[in-house]
From TrEMBL:
It is a multi-pass membrane protein. It comes from Phoenix dactylifera. Keywords: Endoplasmic reticulum, Lipid metabolism, Membrane, Signal, Transmembrane, Transmembrane helix. Residues 1-19 form the signal peptide. It comes from the Eukaryota. CDD domains: Seipin_BSCL2_like. The chain crosses the membrane at residues 188-207. The lineage of its organism: Eukaryota, Viridiplantae, Streptophyta, Embryophyta, Tracheophyta. This is Seipin-1-like. It is found in: Endoplasmic reticulum membrane. The gene is LOC120112527. InterPro entries: Seipin. One of its GO terms (cellular component) is endoplasmic reticulum membrane. Pfam families: Seipin (PF06775). GO terms for biological process: lipid droplet formation; lipid metabolic process.
């Protein structure tokens, strides 16, 4: 009973001090009536009060695009993705902009894949789409909490062509500080060895 009590108490204290990494996933719906389609993903909600990522932690935002492998998307090639972290008052906390495109596959490779995957494609088991994942933001959360993430698509210079999308979403995670991340990754080892140590010290104190 003493071992269980010590283990539960220590586990609660460690969990209270370390906390849990934050993970937020939001779907994106771009407004293609704009010249540069944009969308805003709110990070708050009725079930999540306060800041999604606690102050002092590093936030990482990844963008996931599901794109049809169409001739159109291959033809437009590179387009630009701009992402912004927005504060509650509307100010921009941080921003980044980087190019994106479908991963290149030569014509022989595409023909070979179509031949091999012909039946699954016809049966709808797989689709002619490509999932593109890219990290668009990495920053340290400060006193100004992040209220939303804005993502904008821009065509390559000299063109007006924008990519075709099946779906899009952002995935936001937080990184614990170095010390807390070490404890979190090895928490079960810490639980066992520290609980055993505390139990032995308790036995010594009782015996003494």
């Amino acid at each position: 009973n003493a071992v269980v009590f010590v283990a539960v108490t220590f586990a609660g204290l460690v969990r209270l001090w370390v906390g849990e990494p934050v993970s937020v996933r939001r779907p994106l719906h771009f407004n293609y009536t704009e010249a540069h389609p944009s969308t805003v993903a709110a990070l708050g909600g009725a079930k999540r009060r306060g800041r999604p990522v606690p102050a002092g932690r590093t936030a990482r935002v990844s963008l996931v695009l599901i794109m049809p492998k169409s001739d159109y998307n291959r033809r437009i090639g590179v387009f630009q993705v701009t992402a912004e972290a927005i504060a509650p008052n509307g100010d921009t906390i941080t921003t980044s902009s980087q190019p994106c495109m479908l991963r290149f596959r030569s014509l022989p490779v595409r023909l070979m894949r179509t031949c091999l995957m012909g039946i699954p494609l016809l049966m709808g088991i797989c689709t002619e789409s490509q999932k593109v994942t890219m990290e668009v933001l990495r920053y340290k959360e400060t006193g100004r909490r992040t209220e939303a993430i804005r993502v904008r698509l821009k065509p390559r210079a000299g063109t007006t062509d924008l990519p075709q999308l099946y779906a899009a979403e952002i995935f936001m995670t937080s990184q614990l500080p170095w010390g807390k991340e070490l404890v979190y990754n090895w928490k079960w080892s810490f639980y066992v060895w520290t609980s055993l140590y505390m139990y032995i010290m308790l036995l010594i104190s009782i015996a003494g």
